[in-house]
Structure formats: structure tokens, C-alpha cells
Amino acid sequence: MSARGAMRMWLGQHARAAISALGQLRRKPGGSLMTTAAIGIALALPAAFLLIMDNIESAMSGWDGTPRASVFLALDTPPDRQAATAERIAALDGIREVTLITPAEALAEFQATAGMDETLALLDANPLPAVVEARLAGRLEAADTERLMDRLQALPHVEEIRLDQTWMQRLDALLELGNRTIAIIALLLGLTVILVIGNTIRLDIENRRSEIEITKLIGGTDAFVRRPFLYTGVWYGLAGGVVSGVILVVGILAVSAPATRLAALYQSAFQPAGPGVSGILTLLVTGLLLGLLGAWLAVGRHLVTIEPQ
Amino acid sequence: MIRFEGVGKRYPGGNEALRGLDLHIKPGELVFVTGASGAGKSTFLRLIPLLERPSRGSVLIDGVNLSALRRRRIPFLRRRIGMIFQDHRLLHDRTVFDNVALPLVITGRPHQDVARRVRAALDKVGLLRRERAYPVTLSGGEQQRVGIARAVVTRPPILLADEPTGNLDPALSREIMHLFEQFNQVGVTTVIASHDLPLIEALGHRRIHLHEGRAA
User: Fold this and answer.
1) What is the pTM of this model?
2) Tens digit of pLDDT for each residue in B35-89?
3) Burial letters for A57-76: b for 16+ Cβ neighbours within 10 Å, e otherwise?
4) Where are the extended beta strands (E) located within A143-277?
5) At the top level of its lineage, which domain of life is listed (chain B) (predicted)?
6) Nearest to B109 by CA among A221, A131, A141, A12
7) Which residues does chain A have within 8 Å of residue B76's beta carbon, measured at their own beta carbons?
8) Predicted complex ipTM
9) Which residues of A touch B105 (CB under 8 A)?
10) Which residues pair with B61 in a beta bridge?
11) Which of the listed residues B128, B155, B182 is the one where a domain comes to its end?
12) Residue B135 has pLDDT above 90, yes or no
């Protein structure tokens, strides 16, 4: 036989196995749908967690990662001293850049964003101090931070310093913990998918025992007998991937409005992102591979033991 | 074509089905194997397609010693042997057509070739008009003929039948045996295990009688 003929025959055998596996699933739609739904949910859960983490991280992306210090000046600091203090802060080691926000600017910003005009209108004088927003050169060790804080504190007119580094560190630690937890959950649920598919196919093999025996009796190779079961696993995994994709998209649509409203309350234009095309593709491929693996495990253990009587 | 040399088969329970069987069946022969129940007829037939392996001695098919045949190669041996069983061994959730097509599908024949050959085989056994039927809707004799069509559809050089007329009435049995004679006439080596002595006598082919695991 020519190489092309052999290739065509091989493809034909695979197409036949794939279609016959699909036909077997259609013959018992109830069971197939339940298995598919179980796989879909098991895939959707870790994917949803990952999506949530991604969204949290992107919501935090306003932070460029470098910590900032807000240096509040005393209320009675005259404007020329405010500028001079800002320059002295900028000259310190470990400070990349500074922005001076005068009391008037702070008031304007406050009025514009928070909608508190009426409350502020009740006040006689501007209650806001001048603030120097200092951007640090990078993340600092605890000792360096301490030294920088001391130096800032020592400057004239400086009243209070607020450093957001600890907050950032806590958030980072939380995200790290979240990611680890999700990795473990994903691993366990992936294993669940393999076991569900493996067990379904093991039962399938038992139910079709006589068919397998007859096929072997008339010269079916192990590969021929194995193939439809492997495709069954592939179809289950793929269908589970589709179900999980639908769950994710519907879920995102459901939480989109409240999430956007919540973000608006924090003056953020953040909108929750869906899994996207690449996310869906990843789900499908993951489902397919887990299905194939589950089927392979079931088939490897049970098919060889079935011999014609 | 089929050669047994000192073949013994002992089952795990201690039952010795064959005790040094020697025989030779030439290409193109039609042979009946007879003997009482438990004389080793079924075991003899099961050793040829390697449904079992002998405990001792050697089985040669077409010059190939089966004891040297690896497990991976067994399917290719079975493709050269058409097998017919008393209980038909049909797939009950497939049509007659699909049952007969299975051996061709296994060997990966192109679709059109499959349809042509299946119809030729069904025509030969007189069931061309039942190709859409399911086996359960057929009579015992018809099911047996589907089994025969499946066995011959790949045109194998060897045909084995284990009590093919066991459940059939004399007229049907004769019909089935005549079918085997027709396949034999085109050169297929045919081995039939049967205890229907009057019919075998009437047909008058070579007969191997097994007694206590040996050729008597």
C-alpha cells in the first residue's frame, strides 16, 4: 500500500472511531449530559477563581508596584515653604519623584470627585493640608524604610507621613496565598475530571464487553478496540470544556453590573473581564487532554484483560 | 495448511482436553471433526486462531509456528481465519449489514469497497434483502447465515465452524453444509466440528474422529 493510501486509511479509521464514539454518547443522552455537566463544573470552578484573581490584579494595576509616601505638611505652612519642602523631599535618597498638592488643589479634587460640595460649602476655611506625594525609587527593606521615614519626619513643616508599602505587601501576600490555593483546587478538580471520565469509560467498557470480545475474535487489534473509547474521553472532555466556558461567560455577565457599580464607588473605571478567546481555548484544550488521559487510564487497565472466550 | 504436532492442552483445573494430537489438513480440504462431548473438538478449533495456547506440542498454520507468534500479531492471524459459532456471536445493536461489515472495517477497507463486499457476501448466503434488519428479528438459521457471511466477507483462506448446525433442523442443516461446500470449492480450507453423523456420512468428506484428546 502507498504511503498516501496508508495515511488515508489511518485517518479513515480515526474518523470512524470518533464518529462512532459520538454515536454511543447520543444513544444514552441522559447519562452523557450528567457526566458532561460534572466535568464542566469541575473545570469552571478553578477557571472562575483564576478569573477572579486576574480581575483583582487588573483592578490593582493602577498601582505600578512602587510604593508611595504621602507627606502631610502642617496646616500653617506658607505656600513658599510648601514648595521648598517638596524640593527637599525630592532631594532625599530613595525618592524618585514628588508631586506637591496644595490645599487649594486638594480641595478642588475633593469637590470634583467625591461630590461633597454641599458639605464643604458649610466650612469657612479650607481644612485640607498641603500634601507631598513622594514616589519611592523601588521597594525598600524594612531598615531603609525606617531610615527614610526618620529623615522625612526630621524635615521642618512635616506633620504626618503615611506609607502605603505595608498595605501593598499585605495585598501581595494575599494574592500569593490566593494563587497557591487556586493551584491546589485546580489540581484536585483536574484529578476529579480524570476520575469521572475514567470511571464512566470503565463502565462503558464493561457494558460493551461482548462487542469487544467479538471484535478481537475477528481480528481487531488492541488499537482498534481502544480508539472509540479514547475518543469518548476526548468528546467528554471537550463538551465539559464548552460547558465550563458557558458557565464562566454567564457568570461574568451576571456579576458585571454590580462589580462595575462597586468599582464606581471607589472612583475606578474598572470593568470585570471575561475569560476571552484564549481563556476559552485553554479550557477546551485542558478538557480535551484531561478526557484523553482519563480514558487512557481506564482503557489501559481494562481492555487488555478482555479476551474472547 | 493446518498442522498439529503432539499437541496437548491441560486446563488449570487439571482437565486434559488434548493429549498429543497429531494431524495435518491440506490446503483446500474440507474436514469434519467429530467426537463425543469433551473429546476435544472445541479445544482443537480454539487453538487454531490462538483463542488459547497449547500446553505442549506445536500448531503450524500455513507454515508459521504459532508458538513463535507474538501477542501483537494475533489479530493478523485471526483476520486470515473465518470463524463460525453455534451461538452466532452477532452484535445485537447493529444491523445485519454492520455485523457483516465489521471484519472489513477492522482492516480499514474504503467505504465503497465495504458496501460492495458485504452485499456480495449477503447475496451468497441469501440474505441480501435483510441487510437493514437487526439480528433479533431473524430466525436461528438466518442468524447463522449472517455469521457465515461475516466469516467469509474478507475471503479468508481458512474457515472454522464449531457446531454450526447445532440448533437447526435437518433441512436447514443440509442447506448450511452445502454453503460450506461451496466456499470449499473456491479453495477455502474448511474445518467443521459437528456431531451430526448422518449428515456428515451423507456428504462424504474426510472425517477426523477425536477420542480422549487424540485422533482416533
Assistant:
1) 0.77
2) 988 888 989 999 999 999 999 999 999 989 999 999 899 999 999 999 999 888 9
3) eebeeeeeeebbbebbbeee
4) 158-163
5) Bacteria
6) A12
7) 219
8) 0.90
9) 16
10) B2, B64
11) B155
12) yes
What chain A holds in terms of domains, given with CATH numbers, is 17-62+170-305 (no CATH), 68-163 (3.30.70.3040)
Q: Work out how many CB contacts closer than 8 A connect A with B.
A: 50
pLDDT tens digit sequence for B3-16: 999 999 999 988 88
Residue-by-residue DSSP string for B2-58: EEEEEEEEE-TTS-EEEEEEEEEE-TT-EEEEE--TTSSHHHHHHHTTTSS--SEEE
Angle in degrees, CA B182, B186, B190, rounded to 5: 70
| Window 63-122 of B, Cβ < 8 Å to A | 72, 75-79, 83, 89-91, 102-103, 105-108, 110-111
Q: Counting beta carbons within 10 angstroms of the beta carbon of residue A159, is it exposed (0 to 12), middle (13 to 18) or buried (19 or more)?
A: middle
- Determine the distance in angstroms separating the CA of A13 from the nearest CA of chain B, rounded to an integer: 6
pLDDT class of B193 with cuts at 50, 70, 90: very high
Q: For cell 501593598, what's the residue?
A: A168
Q: Which residue of A14, A218, A224, A309 is the best one to mutate when testing the B interface, meaning the one whose CB has the most B CBs within 10 A? A: A218
Contacts of A222 in chain B (CB under 8 A): 72, 75
- pLDDT of B131 higher than 70: yes
B58: CATH? 3.40.50.300
Residue with cell 506637591: A100
For the stretch A184-211, pLDDT in tens is: 999 999 999 999 999 999 999 998 999 9
The predicted structure's pLDDT at residue A170: 80
Domain limits for position B108: 89-155
Whole-number Cα distances in Å, A292 to A14, A185, A226, A227, B201: 14, 21, 12, 11, 57
Question: What type of residue is A26?
Answer: R
> Which of the listed residues B122, B138, B155 is the one where a domain comes to its end?
B155
> What does the pLDDT read at residue A65?
59
Do residues B183 and B151 touch, judged by C-beta distance below 8 A?
no
Question: Which residues in A131-236 belong to E strands, given as ranges?
Answer: 131-136, 158-163
